[in-house]
């Protein structure tokens, strides 16, 4: 039976600039601890938007998967991934494959899909020597810090994600859709409000327009919820952007973002978005064995550059439908 212990019994540590931290008094059975304290841990996430649990001593993939399943309401299978992952077991993945020296800027996981995780689960099995924190930012606070005219434009128009799939760069069709069958990919796109066009070389280009601001499905608070800055060309390292544009053309980038009417987003706007995120970022360096839960709608997350081996496992749960979050942009599926 889940524990009915009050949240205060977990001894949450609240410090400026850091996520809430709970010190687990685990006797070595992390899965049992997770089952006993599931309600209290999830209550902390509901209150603060995230919680880092330290002291569980998570040491391998099987133990981590067991902990994830004790805390989750059913693990989700990732669709429309923007980068490849390793699958350890059903619903348990590696972190996205991304160059260690490049940051993964603030974003909300799968915020461009019609159904996305309400809760993210992270576990560190191996901490890097330098950097590599999964940093966090409160989405309502970020929304309130953005210029009113910019927010109003995104409220009206939403944002547009463009993607180009091929066998050379970015996520492959199999990574994103779980299949390379054209018919299955087309059916998924039609059901998911994604426009698509097959290229002469067999590649695929897609466009999908989504709301940039949503209401939290439980609290109703407005949240800046998207991947506008992270998946934009101006967030790429300059030398990488120049190379990709030179080889594949401005319209052939693996992903890019635009205003909802299709107009390009300027470098200055992307820089502003990332600066606002940075000014509201909290972080705590990973230690091996750590567990972190993040409300994916209320809280954006990033991955900072790092040196040395880093192993972080990821799971997604508590599926949320965009339609239940008061989207400001109409989405039409076939």
TrEMBL record:
Tell me which UniProt keywords the record has, alphabetically.
Antibiotic biosynthesis, Dioxygenase, Iron, Oxidoreductase
Q: Which domain of life is it from?
A: Bacteria
- Domain (TauD/TfdA-like) spans 27-316
Q: What is this protein called?
A: TauD/TfdA family dioxygenase
Question: Pfam families recorded for this chain?
Answer: TauD
Annotated source species: Streptomyces shaanxiensis
State if Oxidoreductase is listed as a keyword. Answer: yes
Look up the record and name the cofactor or cofactors this protein needs. Answer: Fe(2+)
Q: Name one GO molecular function term.
A: dioxygenase activity
């Amino acid at each position: 039976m889940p524990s009915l212990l009050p949240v205060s019994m977990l001894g949450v540590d609240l410090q400026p600039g850091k996520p809430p931290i709970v010190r687990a008094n685990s006797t070595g059975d992390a899965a049992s601890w997770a089952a006993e304290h599931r309600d209290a841990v999830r209550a902390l996430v509901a209150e603060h938007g995230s919680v880092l649990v330290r002291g569980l001593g998570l040491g391998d993939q099987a133990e981590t998967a067991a902990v994830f399943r004790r805390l989750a309401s059913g693990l989700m299978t990732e669709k429309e991934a923007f980068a490849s992952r390793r699958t350890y077991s059903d619903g348990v993945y590696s972190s996205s494959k991304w160059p260690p020296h490049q940051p993964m800027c603030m974003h909300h996981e799968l915020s461009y899909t019609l159904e996305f995780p309400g809760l993210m689960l992270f576990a560190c099995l191996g901490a890097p020597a330098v950097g590599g924190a999964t940093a966090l930012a409160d989405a309502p606070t970020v929304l309130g810090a953005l210029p009113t005219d910019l927010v109003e434009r995104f409220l009206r128009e939403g944002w547009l994600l463009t993607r180009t799939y091929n066998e050379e760069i970015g996520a492959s069709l199999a990574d994103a859709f779980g299949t390379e069958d054209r018919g299955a990919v087309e059916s998924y796109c039609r059901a998911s409000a994604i426009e698509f066009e097959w290229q002469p070389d067999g590649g695929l280009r897609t466009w999908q327009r989504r709301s940039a601001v949503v209401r939290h499905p439980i609290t109703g608070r407005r949240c800046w919820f998207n991947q506008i800055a992270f998946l934009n060309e101006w967030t790429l390292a300059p030398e990488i952007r120049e190379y990709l544009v030179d080889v594949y053309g401005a319209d052939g980038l693996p992903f890019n973002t635009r205003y909802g009417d299709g107009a390009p987003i300027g470098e200055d706007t992307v820089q502003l978005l990332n600066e606002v995120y940075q000014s509201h970022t909290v972080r705590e360096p990973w230690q091996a064995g750590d567990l972190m839960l993040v409300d994916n709608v209320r809280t954006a997350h990033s991955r900072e550059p790092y040196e040395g081996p880093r192993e972080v496992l990821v799971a997604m749960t508590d599926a949320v439908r965009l339609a239940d979050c008061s989207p400001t942009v109409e989405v039409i599926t076939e």
